[in-house]
Amino acid sequence: MIQINGTAVELAEGTTLQDYLDQNQYNPARVAVERNGAIVPKAAYPSTVLADGDQVEIVHFVGGG
Amino acid sequence: MEPRNPITKEQIQRALRERHSAGVQDKLDHARVAVAGLGGLGSNVAFALARIGVGHLHLIDFDRVDLANLNRQQYFLRHLGMYKTDALKEELLQINPYLDIRTDCIRVTEGNLPELFAEDPIVCEAFDSPEAKAMLVNGILEHFPQAFLVSASGMAGYSDSNRIQTRKITDHFYLCGDGIAQTGPGYGLMAPRVALCAAHEANCIAQYICTTKGEEP
User: What pLDDT, in 10s, does the model give residues B77-118?
Assistant: First the structure.
């Protein structure tokens, strides 16, 4: 089980962070992703395989300031 | 022009210590905070930090003051057309002329970010566009993992005040706002709610400064 934004989710074996963002219609230009306490560099999204026990926080930014 | 009765640095320091206590004020005096984006969030954050005597401020924005900014940003008619960096610095020095204020009138990019924020242990993200917010947050967290970063997302319109919250993402990264309310037709950014969110950011920074141990970050 993987925790994403506080919710436990079941993902297919080998699902990468990039896959998850695509499947859930996240715009990669508007997110920051933290995994197990550290930022995931954007360049590493396609190579980051989400593994059992991972704690992931996807911050999706909306406009305004 | 020299003011007739200039307030001395010692007078201001005494007044701040009277309010905040010496222990707290020493930390604020030595703190260094970068504010990236000087619109509704950043101008309000900078005002709050200047008022409590945060000693070193780094103000960053590329834009000029526009009439449409005055519904929420801390500028006056006399500032129209001025660079926000210059206008805000002028205002903050009227609150406390002894603050050390660095300005960079520049658009932050992935390319210039590492050099621009190299001396800033605390960074406040206060941009408008979601892409710029994400770029800054990713850049700071990647290049400066020891920096303390406060960002904001979701503060448009006039819905519930209490949905604006401060959320800890990691030890070094806090996120303020409701996470949802973006600007849209009939739902613009307005002074009350943007100021609420700015106050969350400023207070999160004040908390960090005042509760960390005395050593330089």
Answer: 999 999 999 999 999 999 999 999 999 999 999 999 999 999
CATH number assigned to the domain comprising residue A49: 3.10.20.30
Residue A5 has phi, psi (to 5 degrees) of: 50, 45
> Contact A63/B152, CB-based, under 8 Å?
no
Q: Which residues pair with B149 in a beta bridge?
A: B123, B173
Contact A65 B39 (CB under 8 A): yes
Q: Which residues of A touch B72 (CB under 8 A)?
A: none
Within-domain flag for A65: no
In a domain, A48, yes or no: yes
ipTM of the complex: 0.95
Domain locations in chain B as residue ranges:
20-211
State whether residue B152 sits within 8 Å of chain A by CB: yes
- The pTM score is 0.95
Check: CB of residue A45 under 8 Å from CB of residue A18. Answer: yes
Whether residue B130 and residue A41 make contact (CB cut-off 8 A), yes or no, is: no
| Domain boundaries B20-211, corresponding CATH code | 3.40.50.720
d(CA B193, CA A15): 39
pLDDT digits (tens, 9 = 90+) for A28-55: 999 999 999 999 999 999 999 999 999 9
